[in-house]
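Appendix B. Raw example, untouched.
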Amino acid sequence: LVLFFQAPHSYTSEDMAELHIHGGVAIVDRILEVLSGLEDLRPAEPGEFTRLAVLNGRMDLTQAEAVADMIDAETMAQQKQAFRQMQGALGELYEGWRKKLASSLAHLEADIEFADEDLPGGIGQAVLGEVTLLNDEISAHIRDDRGRTLRHGVEVAIIGAPNVGKSSLLNYLVGREAAIVSARAGTTRDIVEVSLTLGGVPVVLADTAGIREAGDEIEREGVRRALKRASEADIRLHVTAFDTMVHADEIHSGEAHAEEANFQESDIYVANKQDLGATQCPPNIPDGGFYEVSAETGAGMSDLIEALNARIKENFGLAERPALTRTRHRIALQAACVALERGLERAGSDMELELVAEDLRLAMREIGRITGAVDVESLLDIVFRDFCIGK
């Protein structure tokens, strides 16, 4: 089946044909062989069709990046984020900021160029107020960590004393024997990482070494890594058991680890080995933060998984505003904020408004680089270098 799309009603806004064929390898290879023998036909470069779509104004750079994200998506949340970005939500957000800056810049330059004219008073101050609000909005977007977790996964660390069943808990959650389980305490010396999907969001689950006053150098290094991973994790599962009862704020020994030991709102306290005995909820654990389970029998595990899903969705799931998922975007937005903050500082120091205007112009340029409103040619190779062959 051959479908012809007449410009501009095609993916690239150019005349375009699509071949819909059976998926057998031999058939595909034969058709490619025939096509390659035709005059003026060649295989597409990686991302070439999408590149043409950008050059022809069919989509902006953020939408082009979303095509690659959709191809690489492994979870429902990643697919939804990519689809939203393909529809233009992220590009519209950035373009809206750029237009606000353009408006502010125009008013500021009018105040500069026509200072002696009969213009309304306070234009400059009004512009600076708008720029302050915009800078706050962009800064909040940069701080939003949902994009990182959507791309790289929510970091969940399983921590606790030796022999409380941390590795058994990991194996149950991932549904396979990913970590060695032994009755001997201190079996896990290094961090065991497993990737999975919870709540439609990618998750990196880390089983860490048992935290105690270690006897040998290797175990001490394992404890150090466990503490470091615990401090960096988005969510921590504090695991204990009735036969090795340790309070969450006593898991880490020594004042040097007090910060890592603090029970955070997103953390969950897990009393394992329910099949061997009951455990009372420690004091100061918030409602919904304590679960009795048995990784051996599966008792209570469904409630724990449901709670973990809820925390991931609440803190790291998709929100109404599109997420910041690309390092390229982050770098440009950070540069824009630096320019805006410098301009606001200059304005507060009664420096020449021409310098303030130049800072606004630089910020506007940085935001325009994200969507391709400026410097599109120089950015195309960067954007399309990771594309698959073809689309």
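End of appendix B.
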